Amino acid sequence: MHNLVWTGPKMMEMKEAEVPAVGDNELLVKVEAVGICGSEIEGYLGHNSLRVPPLVMGHEFSGTVTEVGGQVQGLMRGQRVVVNPLLSCGSCNQCRKGLVQLCSQRAIVGIHRPGAFAQFVSVPASSVHVVPDELDFFRASLTEPLACSLRAARRAMERHPFANVVIFGAGTIGLLAFLVAQTLGASRIIVVDSNEARLATPQQLGAFATINPKEPNFIDKVKQWGGASGTDVVIDAAGFQPTRDAAVQIVNPGGTIMNIGLGIDHTQIPINVCIRSEISILGSFSYDAQDFHDALELLKSGKIDPTQWSEIRPLYEGNQAFQDLVNGRVAQAKIFLTPNN
Ligand SMILES: [Zn+2]
Ligand SMILES: [Zn+2]
């Protein structure tokens, strides 16, 4: 089979490999659609210590079951599936609490084992969800990033269900957080991104306003758009010093700042302001089983359709796709790769 192997910073090559062996409790999946994740762009550049070359990335994917391990029950060849790539041990303290995304033995398909930038990938049978025929493979492969955004947005909005929401970042995660916030009943949603091409999609899909943070007085403008209610929820899907600063300035006393963007690690935040104004600062990482399930349900409902904000390229153009993403030459929020055509 063909696969796309990351061999070092800014280098990806198509190679020939054996079709993966399938363990007793595993399935072989023929990959029909795989999205490129923002974290993989960082990985491609060599900025992510978890990703060690040579590596086949790809963790947002769907496909068709072509082989079933001897011990697997209830799944068969030909079924259309989406894979939850986050594998957990099931026995550590966090797993026992249901927080599988915080498992001490956490492993991710496409990071710790070969991923879906390949024609075939083997996965534990317990990691797949069957996809109905009405849901195409591209939308199905959005389950993973949508689960991330769903977890962040609903936890942020738990105490503020009909609030005005400000979202930093209009890449896939920010855009999906916007769509989830809309679905959950947010009032005015304001999307902020310094890449103006990316603001077109939330504008078209009903954002109250969008803004480039380089505009003069941007914080005042965002506050004004919140009207008398102000902004109870800020979701930061970027994660840099300026966005974290702005979040504290924008959010109402008693409000919630949800951090999901991993832009940089160390950041200065005025904690005394957060104490005196009882601002909740939360973090959200990937998803638990319920989030993944609910993300798939939301996609089945047809409320989220990536057609106008995504593009499709063959796997063999993957290296070019990564270069285009790195160089900011991609206006769409998501690129899907197709390994089998
Ligand atoms: Zn990802
Ligand atoms: Zn565990």
From TrEMBL:
SUPFAM superfamilies assigned: GroES-like (SSF50129), NAD(P)-binding Rossmann-fold domains (SSF51735)
Family annotation (SMART domains): PKS_ER (SM00829)
Any one GO MF annotation of this record: oxidoreductase activity
Gene3D superfamilies named in the record: Medium-chain alcohol dehydrogenases, catalytic domain, NAD(P)-binding Rossmann-like Domain
Cofactor or coenzyme needed: Zn(2+)
Domain Enoyl reductase (ER): 8-337
UniProt superkingdom: Bacteria
Family under the similarity heading: Belongs to the zinc-containing alcohol dehydrogenase family.
Protein name as annotated: Galactitol-1-phosphate 5-dehydrogenase
Upper taxonomic lineage: Bacteria, Bacillati, Bacillota, Bacilli, Bacillales
